[in-house]
């Protein structure tokens, strides 16, 4: 087992995105030349890719923790940070990627098949990219997103056409060694075969692969012995060959009983629908009565053969040591494999379904929750969560930019509808990684009537009076002054006020 591992648990961490930078262009005679901060680079992904030269998962058994490089931060003079290189993990063909709960994420079959197990974080924007007509010189930049962390299970399921199944020491390894060029370990003690052995068999113009999988004991479907290893490696096989030892000296063992025990284990094991196709108990099965070179074994084989054929099984009496009955068995398996390949449905490529977002879809939800610490309001959505993670909360301008983005998205309006008031606790993000705010709603004090931020409607009136209008206004002003002086003079002549007053 030290050289073959068919199940591992990987702990993956993709690369973080690089931070954007806030920088101002400076040169001689131009000390404030505008923002020129570059963007951060994207973090590296972790990709699982099939490599024909890899036959085991042993490398990941010894090193289950893998991390991808981070993206580099941006720099001044509009220099963007370098992207983190993707970390490619080579796996054998037939590797199934699942979660801890058993959900199948990917079935990697064929050279070059790949699956992105963890995606790197986006790089943050520099202040050059954040500049606009209204925000000409941003004094902040966005932070890079953290990379995804994932825990996946890799299971190797052997890709073979024929699986040899049976009790330990039934002669499966010997049969593989004489049918193909494979040289598995052969010994006279139970559980000699600890790992699957593959061999290529040629019969006429047909070529197929045969797998000798670990031995089976009662209770294998429940994990006893090497049962799970046995059953995992027969999920993809088209034909199951029962190899029965007719020369065993163990008490309570006979060909009919051995076959019945194995069939019960096949019926109890339920393969995944995406991997095995039809259930194991419904696949083509052939019975091989082995060790016919022993006289007592051949006599027993000929005795039970009619009973097995009456049950509907195709029976072959062979001897791997004496090479008896192997030719008939080989051509029979080739015919079964050919028919199974013809009947196998060709999977059509999945159609790409485009589902555009509805016009009224906000892309986030506000949920009111009751916690031991009191009532909170949780904002869930990809964009709000990403924006919060990219915000530098030590920069007031960056916090204001975040508030503007959330307000434009409609978060504040939804919080008001949900019942939030000034001072309410608002959480943005999932439960295990949320940012907590004490919410203060925007106060409308009348300044909004002057227009959008950075504008003033009082400056929008650009009408200029004509020359005649100016002359008329001047004469009106002079006439009003002359009338005022005449009124004062008339009051003086009438004696309404004297020098003493």
TrEMBL record:
Residues binding Mg(2+), per UniProt: 173, 193
Protein name: GTPase Obg
Function: An essential GTPase which binds GTP, GDP and possibly (p)ppGpp with moderate affinity, with high nucleotide exchange rates and a fairly low GTP hydrolysis rate. Plays a role in control of the cell cycle, stress response, ribosome biogenesis and in those bacteria that undergo differentiation, in morphogenesis control.
Keywords, alphabetical: Cytoplasm, GTP-binding, Hydrolase, Magnesium, Metal-binding, Nucleotide-binding
Occurrences of domain OBG-type G (ranges): 160-338
Limits of the OCT domain: 356-441
Record-annotated Obg domain positions: 2-159
Location(s), subcellular: Cytoplasm
UniProt xrefs under PROSITE patterns: G_OBG, GTP1_OBG, OBG, OCT
InterPro entries the UniProt entry points to: G_OBG (IPR031167), GTP-bd (IPR006073), GTP-bd_Obg/CgtA (IPR014100), GTP-bd_prot_GTP1/OBG_C_sf (IPR036346), GTP1-OBG_CS (IPR006074), GTP1_OBG_dom (IPR006169), GTP1_OBG_dom_sf (IPR036726), OBG_GTPase (IPR045086)
Organism, as annotated: Ornithinimicrobium kibberense
Required co-factors: Mg(2+)
EC numbers on record: 3.6.5.-
Binding site for GTP: 166-173, 191-195, 212-215, 290-293, 319-321
Principal location class: cytoplasm
Homology family: Belongs to the TRAFAC class OBG-HflX-like GTPase superfamily. OBG GTPase family.
EC category name: hydrolase
Record region (Disordered): 59-81
Subunit relationships: Monomer.
Pfam families: DUF1967, GTP1_OBG, MMR_HSR1
Translocase keyword on record: no
């Amino acid at each position: 087992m030290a050289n073959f591992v068919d199940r591992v648990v990987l702990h993956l961490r993709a690369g973080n995105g690089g931070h954007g930078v806030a920088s101002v262009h400076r040169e001689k005679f131009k000390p404030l030349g505008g923002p020129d901060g570059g963007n951060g680079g994207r973090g590296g992904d972790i990709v699982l890719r099939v490599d024909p030269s890899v036959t085991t998962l042993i490398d990941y058994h010894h090193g289950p923790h893998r991390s991808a490089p981070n993206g580099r931060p941006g720099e001044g003079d509009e220099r963007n940070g370098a992207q983190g290189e993707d970390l490619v993990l080579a796996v054998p063909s037939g590797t199934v990627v699942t979660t801890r709960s058993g959900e199948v994420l990917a079935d990697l079959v064929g050279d070059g098949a790949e699956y992105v197990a963890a995606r790197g974080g986006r790089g943050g924007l520099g202040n050059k990219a954040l500049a606009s007509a209204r925000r000409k010189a941003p004094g902040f930049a966005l932070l890079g997103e953290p990379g995804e962390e994932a825990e996946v299970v890799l299971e190797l399921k052997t890709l073979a056409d024929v699986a040899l199944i049976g009790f330990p020491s039934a002669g499966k390894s010997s049969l593989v060694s004489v049918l193909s060029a494979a040289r598995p370990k052969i010994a006279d003690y139970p559980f000699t075969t600890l790992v699957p052995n593959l061999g290529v068999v040629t019969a006429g113009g047909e070529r197929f692969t045969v797998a000798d999988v670990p031995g089976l004991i009662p209770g294998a479907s429940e994990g006893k012995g090497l049962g799970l290893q046995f059953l995992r490696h027969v999920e993809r096989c088209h034909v199951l060959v029962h190899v029965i030892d007719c020369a065993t000296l163990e008490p309570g063992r006979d060909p009919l009983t051995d076959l019945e025990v194995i069939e019960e284990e096949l019926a109890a094991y339920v393969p995944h629908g995406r991997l095995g196709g039809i259930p194991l108990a419904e696949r083509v099965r052939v019975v091989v009565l082995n060790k016919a070179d022993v006289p007592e074994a051949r006599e027993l084989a000929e005795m039970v053969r009619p009973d097995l054929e009456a049950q509907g099984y195709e029976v072959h009496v062979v001897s791997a040591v004496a090479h008896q009955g192997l030719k008939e068995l080989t051509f029979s398996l080739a015919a079964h494999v050919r028919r199974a390949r013809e009947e196998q449905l060709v999977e059509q490529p999945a159609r790409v379904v485009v589902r555009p977002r509805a016009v009224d879809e906000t892309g986030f939800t506000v949920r009111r929750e009751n916690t031991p610490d009191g009532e909170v309001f949780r904002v869930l959505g990809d964009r709000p969560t990403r924006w919060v993670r990219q915000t530098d909360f030590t920069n007031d301008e960056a916090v204001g930019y975040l508030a503007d983005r959330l307000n434009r998205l409609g978060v504040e309006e939804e919080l008001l509808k949900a019942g939030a008031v000034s001072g309410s606790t608002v959480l943005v993000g999932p439960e295990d990684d949320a940012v907590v705010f004490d919410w203060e709603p925007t106060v409308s004090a009348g300044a909004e009537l002057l227009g959008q931020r950075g504008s003033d409607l009082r400056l929008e009136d650009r009408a200029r009076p004509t020359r005649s209008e100016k002359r008329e206004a001047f004469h009106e002003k002079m006439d009003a002054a002359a009338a005022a002086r005449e009124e004062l003079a008339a009051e003086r002549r009438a004696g309404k006020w004297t020098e003493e007053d």
